[in-house]
Write a structure and sequence with these properties.
The chain is of the alpha/beta class. It contains three helices and six strands, in the order H-E-H-E-H-E-E-E-E. The strands form two sheets. A four-stranded mixed sheet has the order 1-2-4-3, covered by helices on one side. A two-stranded antiparallel sheet has the order 5-6.
């Protein structure tokens, strides 16, 4: 059932879905702390906010655990989970500023605002 849900999810995204069958799965599931060895059912590499919302809705509908991975690292390995869905924001590196220039926004995948 979940395999079909992840195939359907992939068709709705600008980003990509990586599953254990994907060539890049082993690299994509790794986190900064090499002692963490979790194997999620799927990793969603989100391209935009709409992808994030679609991934969250899929996880809710499938009743699976969710881990969110930003652009940095987390020593405790909170950016990955076993048998769940990883929502990977590391591709979301956009940045913008308000018209006045007083407010700046960065995507969740950026390591710094510069």
């Amino acid at each position: 059932m979940r395999e079909e849900a992840y195939r359907n999810l992939s068709a709705k995204l600008r980003g990509s879905v990586i599953t254990p069958c994907s060539d890049e799965y082993e690299v994509a599931r790794r986190v900064y702390n090499g002692m963490i060895d979790c194997r999620p059912d799927a990793i969603v590499r989100c391209a935009d906010v709409a992808d994030v919302m679609t991934a969250v809705n899929c996880a809710r509908n499938e009743d699976v655990a969710v881990a969110v991975r930003g652009g940095g690292h987390n020593g405790a390995g909170l950016g990955v989970c076993d048998r769940g869905l990883v929502i990977d924001l590391s591709s979301m590196k956009e940045r913008s500023a308000s018209r006045s220039g007083h407010e700046h926004y960065t995507g969740r995948g950026r390591l710094h605002a510069g």
